[in-house]
Amino acid sequence: MSNNQDDREGRLKKKILDRFDDETSQEIKILKSRPDFRPELEYFVDLLAGGRDPATISARTGRPVVALMCLQAPLELFHVYGLQPFKIFGGTMVAQRLSAPQLPAIMCPMLRSALGELHLDLAGSKGQKFLAWVTPTTCDWVVKIQDMMEVCGITEKPPFHRLELPHLKDRTESQDRWLEEVYLLRGFLSQITGKKKIRRQDLARSMNIYQKSWHVFSNLIDLKRTGRVPEIWFMVISNSFFFDDAEKWTESVKKALPVFNKREKALPDIFLAGSPIFFPNLKMLHLLEEAGLNVVMDDLCSSERIFPGAVYFDDFSEHGLLKALAQRYHQGCLCPTFSDNDRRINNIIAPAHKDLYKGVVFHVLKGCHPFDLESLTLECRLKDMGLKFIKLETDYTSEDSQTLLTRLEAYRNTLAN
Question: Global pTM?
Answer without folding.
Answer: 0.93
